[in-house]
Amino acid sequence: MSKTFTREEVARHASENDLWVIIDTDVYDLSNFVDLHPGGAFPILELAGKDATTDFYGLHRQEVLVKYKRYKIGSIAGEKAQFSIPQPGELSKVPYAESSAFSGFKSPYYKESHFQFRTEVRKIMAELAEEFRELDQTDGKPSDELMQKLGETGLLACNVGPGPHLKGINIPAGVKPEEFDYFHEMIVHEEFARVVPRGVDDGVIGGFVIAIPTVLNFAKPHIREKHARDILLGKKRICLAITEPYTGSDVSRIRTTAKLSADGSHYIVNGVKKWITSGRYAQFFSTAVRTDKGLSMLLIERGEGVETKAIRTSYSPSAGTAYVTFDNVKVPVENLLGVENQGFKVVLSNFNHERLVMLMGASAAGRLAVEECLKWANQRKVFGKRLIDQPVIRNKLANMISQVEAFHNWLENLTFQMNHMNYAEQSEKLAGPIALAKYQATRMLHNVSDDACQIFGGRGITKTGMGRYVEMMQRTYKFSAILGGSEEIMADLGVRQAMKHFPKEARL
Ligand code: HEM
């Protein structure tokens, strides 16, 4: 049992060398920390021996108390704590912090297994949270151990939807592969977005999510057998190499060539690729090339003639964004993905899923901004009042909440359609709505991020501390508006797809 003290006892420890403070009902001995304190000694000295709760929560995130729990020596006798530190896996009780089904509202979409699954995934992610955050601060590479841990927990494989690739995978909460659906997948992306800074997330799963389906669905069976499992278990890494300096969304204009050797045993690949997410870390490049009569996809293994160098983007070096050069790279013909000259089919095949993944992450990112702002507005005091007591702040929050909720409801509908349509129907009916939803998602992020930053003020543009999430969001949300089909192309595609189904007989 932890020690208890009276407030009078704490008050007796009020000098620089013997310095205790009370935060909520816990007592901290900061004598050895005062000179190490990142905020300097002065603010703590002023509160030596006193209750520092209000000042503490005005300046620190609660996670600081978890990180420095070694300084806690006990609690105040007979007093009940006002604030609780969430346990791993626990859902937030802040209004709108969880989607409605997870905050006590009725929903037609989720079964018991989804609730258990979220709890387990949240626990796993909580264990890794500090490591992810540090990667964003240090611009580090997601380590092999981290990738393997994600692989072992089954979470990497759960990032790419339901399907035969889940056979033999240890899915959290004991979900059976045949039970796993797109709502389970949504939960995975939401939980990643809650914990993993956006750029780091791209370094960890961004490249993988868009590339592994090309192997699972189009590689020759023996090539799939040889590599897919290692990639799903985080032992090897893969990226998708399509865009080039000359062409982003306009895939038909790529210039990288693959010429068949005279004996027909391999292709010789030459060309360059740009903005390749996690390319710096990848052993495999699922690559769009120009063959004699069209576009083809090849699985290229890192080796002689393959070079990657870092592109300095604004979100995070941890994303491993690369400029890739292929210089006379020999690729065995068996590494062809799909059919020669029909690579477009491979490229297009995963667009709906890739965008859906981005929507799921975007939804959770917007929601987390709401939670952060509600907490901050409730605890931050200015001009003698809490921020939430200012109508202008409540108006911004209303704007944020309504956009997040509206978007999430659409997303749940689309996810439901994914669960109940076969691949052909998904391709036929969902490309337009998913494109429009992506357009809507990134407009939502733009607005939410802007409001959140104004609510957090200087902290919203500071990488560490109270506003670190909002700063990260400001710095990264644009990536979702550009990658996976730019906002403008998404909007246009959505309307063009709708017009394909416009009835000829309809007139105003
Ligand atoms: C358990 C006790 C405490 C711990 C572990 C702690 C730890 C920290 C840490 C890690 C930071 C850096 C946060 C960042 O990244 O921006 C910080 C900043 C700061 N702390 Fe503390 N602190 C404690 C108590 C206090 C108390 C009692 C005060 C009194 C007011 C205080 C005042 C400050 C100030 C003024 C800053 C700078 C905040 C800013 O840059 O906006 N701290 N503290």
TrEMBL record:
InterPro entries, per database record: Acyl-CoA_dehydrogenase (IPR050741), Acyl-CoA_Oxase/DH_mid-dom (IPR006091), Acyl-CoA_Oxase/DH_mid-dom_sf (IPR046373), AcylCo_DH-like_C (IPR036250), AcylCo_DH/oxidase_C (IPR009075), AcylCoA_DH/ox_N (IPR013786), AcylCoA_DH/ox_N_sf (IPR037069), AcylCoA_DH/oxidase_NM_dom_sf (IPR009100)
Record keywords, A-Z: FAD, Flavoprotein, Heme, Iron, Metal-binding, Oxidoreductase
Keyword DNA repair: no
Matches recorded under Gene3D superfamilies: Acyl-CoA dehydrogenase/oxidase, N-terminal domain, Butyryl-CoA Dehydrogenase, subunit A, domain 2, Butyryl-CoA Dehydrogenase, subunit A, domain 3, Cytochrome b5-like heme/steroid binding domain
GO terms under biological process: fatty acid beta-oxidation using acyl-CoA dehydrogenase
Highest taxon in the source lineage: Eukaryota
GO MF, any single term: heme binding
Requisite cofactors: FAD
Domain Cytochrome b5 heme-binding span(s) in chain numbering: 2-77
UniProt entry tagged with the keyword Heme: yes
Cellular component GO terms held in the UniProt record: cytoplasm
Family: Belongs to the acyl-CoA dehydrogenase family.
Protein name: Acyl-CoA dehydrogenase NM domain-like protein
Source species of the chain: Hesseltinella vesiculosa
Classification lineage: Eukaryota, Fungi, Fungi incertae sedis, Mucoromycota, Mucoromycotina
